[in-house]
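Lay summary

Proteins are chains of building blocks that fold into shapes. Our project writes down both the chain and a compact code for its shape. Here are two examples, one after the other.
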Amino acid sequence: MNNTGQKQNEQYWAAFFQEVPSDQLGLKIPNVYDSHYRDFHMGITGCYIRAIQRVRPPTIRAAFVMKGSAQDFFHSLIEQQTEIENELGEKFYCWIQAAEKQIYVELKDCDVTDRADWSDQHQWLAMKLEKLVKVFRPRVEKLKGEYDEPRL
């Protein structure tokens, strides 16, 4: 990444964390800001909430991320798509890779280099991150309990 992109990332996330107090999110705040995304630990192994800002395509995104054995929850969550989308109040999208799976919502065509719009973008991200925690944490805790139960 070039220095301009890294500086953009650092400034964007520094402004985000100034505007959105860590206690508002109820998640562990990362302390490195130089990437286009930030992962927040949910307290469930392999599960994260991710905030993403991209210059190209111009997008911000809030995602529920599953890594490692937590990816086992993905298909059970997809089976609940209608209920989850109703709770989120919008359609979600999926991104599937070998290392992780994501369920996300996004705001397209927003210019993350436009500082005048950052406050609105940060509020959108904060609202979506909170909603993802509210919707996915209880489902994953229930699924985790089912996976942890001894099978006879």
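And here is the second example, written the same way.
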Amino acid sequence: MKDKLTHIENKISQLRQKKERIQTQQALLLMKEAQKIFQGEFSPDVALKVLKDHWNGASETQKEEWKKRASSFLSSSHKTRKAAENRNSISQQSGKAEVPHHEHP
């Protein structure tokens, strides 16, 4: 019984770590996309201010439209994560470490 509880606790810990990795990957992808948009004038503070001002000033209709179109970012993030996981899995099997590579649509 104790072994089963330990196994479950370990699995929970692994899932939490996986969740953190995914969130970090999404944050990095978001940052890279923002850097592309702002080009040489990028700073997290400016990006956050622009985002906040546009969101707060937008109509509910506009917000709904953005939410509908947001699925493309989430799906590309998911595809990028899956591709990185596959590459890392293959690298681990061959004994080589690989730096994650992010693909953009």
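What can we say about the second shape? The CA atoms of residues 21 and 81 lie 10 Å apart.
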